[in-house]
Amino acid sequence: MTGPQRPGGVGWEGGPDRPGGRRDEAAELAAALGEPSWQAPRVKPLDRRLAVDRDSVERGLASLVLTVIELLRQLMERQALRRVDLGDLTEEQIERVGATLMALEQQMTELREYFGLAPEDLNLDLGPLGPLLPTD
Questions:
Q1: Is 5 helix (H, G, I), strand (E, B) or coil?
Q2: What is the three-class DSSP state of 116?
Q3: Using one digit for the tens of pLDDT, what is the confidence trace for 75-88?
Q4: Any bridge partners for residue 131, and if so which?
Q5: Domain parsing of the chain, residue ranges
Q6: Does the pTM exceed 0.70?
């Protein structure tokens, strides 16, 4: 029994090049095309060592951690505002939440200054999705 036929009469099965009858089409195509008329430029191999200094690692890690904290702070702030708008919180709860969020924002400012980071440094660019943190 012969297998399904491709255009041009070449079958899927029964080829001499591979066990089980399948032809190695890539090898056939390469042989038919011959050597390319151009050659890709040679590039220098990458150095396998990673050049890292303590300050850049510390700053990068601080930036990542502070970005996550800032994202969570903004989400908590929005949630608190929604709950205030819905009337879910008492005056005392509103005061506590407000004081807590203000203290967290102040602490974030101090940490950013300590690590030499600007607020823009905490906003990751997500490509086509836009920035991680809103810019309002």
A1: strand
A2: coil
A3: 999 999 999 999 99
A4: 125
A5: 54-124
A6: no
